[in-house]
Design brief:
This protein has about 90 residues and is mainly α. About 75% of the residues lie in helices and about 0% in strands. It contains 4 helices and no strands. The two termini are about 20 Å apart.
């Protein structure tokens, strides 16, 4: 198996795991996603004049973005995103 094939398999399995855990097919998943959206500031600015607080808020938002990327992007889009982002 080539490195690209291994990466594709890894992304595929990880995406499937995120989609399984955060599927909207049950009320628990919906409740957890709603809670995380609030906690991670999914639709609000992370700005805070205190740089340490700002960094914490940005970290939370980064987690939210990772979850939503795995729920909404295709495997090809994820592979492209993480092959250029996580170097």
């Amino acid at each position: 198996m080539t490195l690209i094939e291994k990466a594709k398999l890894f992304i595929s399995q990880r995406r499937r795991a995120y989609r399984y855990v955060f599927s909207n097919e049950n009320q628990f998943s919906k409740d957890v996603l709603a809670d995380l959206a609030r906690f991670c500031r999914a639709d609000r600015s992370c700005f805070n004049p205190d740089s340490r607080v700002h960094a914490v808020l940005e970290g939370r938002r980064e987690v939210w973005l990772r979850i939503t990327q795995h729920l909404n992007l295709s495997e090809e889009e994820l592979l492209r995103l993480y092959s250029t982002k996580e170097k």
